[in-house]
Amino acid sequence: MTMKKIFHILMAAVAALSLASCQEYLSANSPSTVDANFVFSSIETARTVLYGAFNSITNSITSGLPTNLDDIGSDSDRCSIGIVADLVGASLLYGGSPSYTVEEFNINGSFKGYWDTYYGALSKANQVIANILAKEDIESILASAPNDWSDLLGQAYCMRATMYYEIVMHWGDCIYYTENEVGQDLKELTNRDLVIEREIAAVEKAEKWMYSMGDNNHLPDQMTRNYADGLIGRLCFMAAAYQTRRMDLGDDFYVNEDGKPYTYEVWGTDPARKAAYGRRSDWKSFYTKAIPYLEKGVNQPAGASLTTVDPRSDAKRVYNNPFQYYFDQVTKLVMPEESIFEWSMRAETGGRMAYNFGRASNGGSTAYPPKTNAQTSSYPEVLYGWFDPQDLRRDASLSVTGSTGSGAEVIYNYVLSNKITIGVGMNKYDLNRQENPDARQIKSGINYVYMRQADLILMLAEAYAVNGDNAKAATELKKIHNRAFADDIQDAKYNELLASVGGDVFEAIIKERSLEFVGETLRRWDLIRTGKLPQVAVEYRKTLIDHMNEMKTNGYVAYPNGNEFPAWIWTKMMDGKQVLGYRLTAQCPEGLDPNSDEYALLYPSWRGQHDDWKKVADEDGYKGTIVEDMTNLAIMGMFKHIEPDSAEALALEARGYKKTPWGVGSYTQGGLGLAPDAGIEAKWTSEFMIGYTDADYAAKKAPIYLIPMNQTTCETTGLTNGYGFKSTMN
Fold this sequence. Notes:
Elements: H1 13-16, H2 33-39, H3 43-62, H4 65-71, E1 78-79, H5 88-91, H6 112-133, H7 138-143, H8 148-171, H9 192-207, H10 225-239, E2 243-246, E3 264-270, E4 275-280, H11 283-299, H12 322-331, E5 339-343, H13 353-357, E6 376-378, H14 380-386, H15 393-397, E7 398-399, E8 401-403, E9 409-411, E10 424-426, E11 448-452, H16 453-466, H17 470-483, H18 490-500, H19 505-516, H20 523-529, H21 533-554, E12 556-558, E13 564-566, E14 568-574, H22 576-579, H23 597-602, H24 613-619, E15 632-636, H25 647-654, E16 658-661, H26 680-684, H27 694-698, H28 711-717
Antiparallel strand pairs: 1-6, 2-4, 3-4, 5-11, 6-10, 7-10, 8-9, 12-13, 14-15, 14-16
Helix pairs in contact: 3-6, 3-8, 6-8, 8-9, 8-10, 9-10, 10-11, 11-16, 16-17, 16-19, 17-18, 17-19
């Protein structure tokens, strides 16, 4: 699987046809029979309908959908303060400012268009399904599957199921319709359990009709059989998940196909908001259902595979980090074999992954690299406490430095807004790593990785563990865990992982997921579905407060893994090209003298700057002023406290290193040359999930993590929001 293949979205007369169903809440028109007959007369024109669905989702991704809905509000990923302000309430479980409480939340905020986007995409999928099933030769098409028509049909089923997966995750119960209801004006909610059961059955049926990865030139920018297997796993896990459900819809609402009530294991309720948090009583059966499909996806992966080898070589740089190599490929617009499905972005129309999820840049709209807002960032707790110091994923996942926008490296600070003020940032996408990056913001072309093979493997491990087969679960878990460590320490580090969770293999898998998928939009839902959200909302906040107090008292925070999060570090700008022979760093080699300037430039790993921003700028007409010598930041004391004014500190200062604020900026901005800000501490500690209190947890109160339907949807359907949300802002 080599270079990135992008959909060529056909926007000619065929694409101009409105092929969505006639739903008032979607403001879509019904196609005529003549239009449908024409469009579905050939596979080429039929594909444009589904391409339209793909295009609508990628446009929403470009406008920030993953950041706004999926990545905020977990203990590993946070959204920069001041960004998507009307969603801050959701990221914090609705609290803080009165306008961000459930009862006062703006139901017409920036998320309101996503409902229409999801329904528009599934409407197109339903049109594809209905028209292909209506073809005269449908029996022969299915009998000879997989073929082009059956594969398109399977992709349409997967698109629809994916949209319902997203809708249920964010809104809960929803309006449900399939190819059988195309053209009907539906105005009723269907319970989410029934929706997900039906979609599992639909994808199970369609999976065998689809091409596998690599068949018929299928790459991860299309939904393949591999994706269908993983999607069945995700849907089954959703059916088994803890979720907050409504209690105001009557006893006959949460019923199955036969009209019999579902039963639930309820963790807690919120009587005032008429909500309950729990999972189905038959939840384990869905893990069992998922196993054969996940086994197929893992053991018969066709053209997909876990990245376990790093083939990169360089006369000067050290690599040997398969995890790092995977994201290096994605950043460079290559679709790796580990990718199961990627939402395909196009540089000419957008590509927000680097802008929202990437390594930060203080540059302007046209710079080197251009502004990267880094709306998704992390916590010092994750960098210092979660990751083992020898975990190869740490530096490939998290960053402590960004870019000035003029070709130089810069340390982050803790003002907590965006760009280089984020404290600890994400590092899986970095414009410095593109060979010829676009100097304009939001033009990276980097795909949104929606599912990769590591997820299938860890889902299979989780399903085995729930079913009591810890031996098989451990086998799958080790595939992911061992990749993150050098060969000679893998067994010891795996034993440490198990010991950290009391030997519980299931808990080890969930912990491994938290490390593997930092910044990939999965952690928040993992907390919700496993029932951990209420406990994390309270205990993580206490941990952050305790560590803040430790920082203020001792000047650093000590972690059991040996890391120390210091108040101050020592830094020096250097000419990376002269010292190292390059500016863009890879893996810090073992055995390097930790007191050397080379070590200070290379550790932590996976940073620096593009090797030749000047050349890129020259080719652009030299639009910016490029730093050509002092481009790289040498750092001492990032993971080990150095006492200010100590002999060690004075020796570093004699070598040209400057005492630089680091952890101190998390509780006071005075060290940054700014006016002290008493509020900065709260942003890191007490504001975490502020709407869910210690008292809520003690009372086992159901957490409200969902978002409401917007006012237009409520008015056109007659439906009302639950969970305490308003249904109108009038």
